[in-house]
Specification:
By secondary structure, the chain is α+β, with helices and mostly antiparallel strands. The chain has two domains: 155 residues, Roll (Diaminopimelate Epimerase, Chain A, domain 1); 142 residues, 2-Layer Sandwich (Beta-Lactamase), CATH 3.30.450.150. 45% of the residues lie in helices and 16% in strands. The chain is built from ten helices and ten strands. The strands form three sheets. The chain has a four-stranded mixed beta sheet, with helices on both faces. The relative contact order is 0.10.
Length: 335
Amino acid sequence: MRHRLKRRIAAFSCASVIILVFASRPAQELCAQTAGAPLVRIASDVRDEAGLFSRDAVAAARKRLAQIEATYHVPAVIETIDSLGGSALEAAAVDRARKTGVEGVFILVAKRETKIDAIRSARFATVVEAAQLHAIRDAFIAEFGKRDFDDGLTKGVAEIEKALAEAKARGRVAPAPSPSSSLVLRNQVRLTLDGARKIVAGAQAKAQELNLKINIAVVDDGGHMIAFERMDGARPASGYTATTKAVTAATFRQATGPLPAGTTAPDLLLNLSLQNAAAASGGKVTTLLGGVPVVVDGQVIAGVGVGGGTGEQDATVARAGIASFLAEVEGKTSQ
């Protein structure tokens, strides 16, 4: 008993094993090797909620990620969960990345759905390219497909290091850490009025292709109106539903529709409760199809709502508007 107690106390001493102790905190504190030296903050982490990896593999990955962050100044968080719970993969990745409070590379693995996504924050969009994110994700998938999760973790971390080494060689250096980063969020992506108008134009083009007369609303990530247009002949009443769809998509960070999301058997009580709550608060929330979030660099920056067709048609038109916007954004970013 005394021997086990000594080992537990040692785990909290200033040694490299301290990486394991602070694994669940958004910003880990690693004790310096030299007595009296200041603490170095490391944000990188492996959070294995789904229990896919062995303890040794997690410890080795955390240590390597800390070394990578110290070298390239880009944090990386790898998180596993049991299930998406009906949420879309990208939306879940964005939401959980935000909750970590860490700006950098974020990898989310959903065990039950056997899905994986790799995203990076806007601050590092010029450091880690989209193609490199795909390579990182594929490195995990190659071994996960063989049920060799520990090896997948090791190779995924190695691919992160490779991507950052390539970025540095090409002169794409990570920005210096922001002061007081735990108190404010910096380098967030915002949708401009021109961007909102681009979405509207793309949505209208799709509506005309489908011979629909629709209302379209574009709001910011907090649900505040940026742009609204009603096509000639569209029902005025659908303008209201378009707005509530846009607000819901932006503030819930996911596409609108019956809850739980993605289910073929909606929870009637849950949906009714949500509608009652929406009515009591002024009708700002809906479970109608046709609201879609706009995601850029892993951030939900806006919501688009369409009203005038069937729910499926409205969602199709909203997605088309967003797709035309994203095509131009990505085209300009790659130039």
